[in-house]
Amino acid sequence: MSTGTLAAAPLRDAVTGDPARLRRAFGAFATGVTVVTVGGAAPRGMTANSFTSVSLDPALILFCVGNDAVMNGVLAEAETFAVSVLGAGQEDVARHFASRSRPPGAAQFDAVDWLPGPVAGAPLIAGAAAHFECARWRAYDGGDHTVHLGRVLALEELPGREPLVFHGGAFQGLSPLPSGERR
Predict the structure, then answer these.
(1) Are 70 and 152 in contact (CB under 8 A)?
(2) Of 34, 41, 138, 179, whose CB has the highest number of CB atoms within 10 Å?
(3) N- to C-terminal Cα distance for the chain?
(4) Which domains are seen in the chain, by residue range?
(5) Residue 176: cis peptide before it, omega within 30 degrees of 0
(6) How far is C-alpha 106 from the geometric centre of its chain's CA atoms?
């Protein structure tokens, strides 16, 4: 690791001038795939792969939503929401909630198995690897996205469920390691 001075950041156009190249470079980082949901009179769901843990105390999670997404307005009004970490084999669920052509409101959940969250009241995707029910904590400007933080109110782990992964522009599962090796 170099101990020298870091070079000045390149001009904005040098990095963002080729969005396809930038997307490919970002795609080198494998992410999990989630569905963020809000309950109430007009429930809404959205696929998000920009999800991460932030803090253990308080228990906080983070995800990002494009500024032009309907979900930003829905989250601004909601006190609570849920995040379902999708499992391997749930690519169809991820694609459904990423589609702009899905129906609005409760009808968008007709195509998937779900159950109501007992704490936040938001739909939880059945078969997911984990569920988090959250209270809205903070939202921050993140360029062309809004960064949303939530305080975890309740969680459910589904042991042994392999997660759905997104890498290099494609959905994947985790490949098993040779016998005896550990991750």
Answers:
(1) no
(2) 34
(3) 25
(4) 31-166 (2.30.110.10)
(5) no
(6) 20
More confident residue, 169 or 63: 63
Name the one residue in this structure whose structure tokens are 């809000």: 38
Q: Which residues contact 127 (CB under 8 A, 6 or more apart)?
A: 87, 89, 90, 113, 158, 161
pLDDT, the chain, mean = 86
Q: Which two tokens stand for residue 48?
A: 């998000």
Q: What's the sign of the alpha-carbon dihedral 117, 156, 100, 73? A: positive
Sequence-distant (6+) residues with CB within 8 A of 97 are 35, 45, 46, 47, 108
The whole-model pTM stands at 0.82
- Note the pLDDT of residue 182: 47
Residue 168's CB is within 10 A of a number of other CB atoms, namely 10
Rounded percentage of the chain residues whose pLDDT exceeds 90: 66
At 87-117, the pLDDT tens digits run 999 999 999 999 999 999 999 999 999 999 9
Q: Which helix (H) or strand (E) holds 25?
A: helix 19-26
Per-residue pLDDT for 43 more than 80?
Answer: yes
Six-digit token string for 183:
């991750």
Task: Return the structure tokens found at 118.
Answer: 């007992």
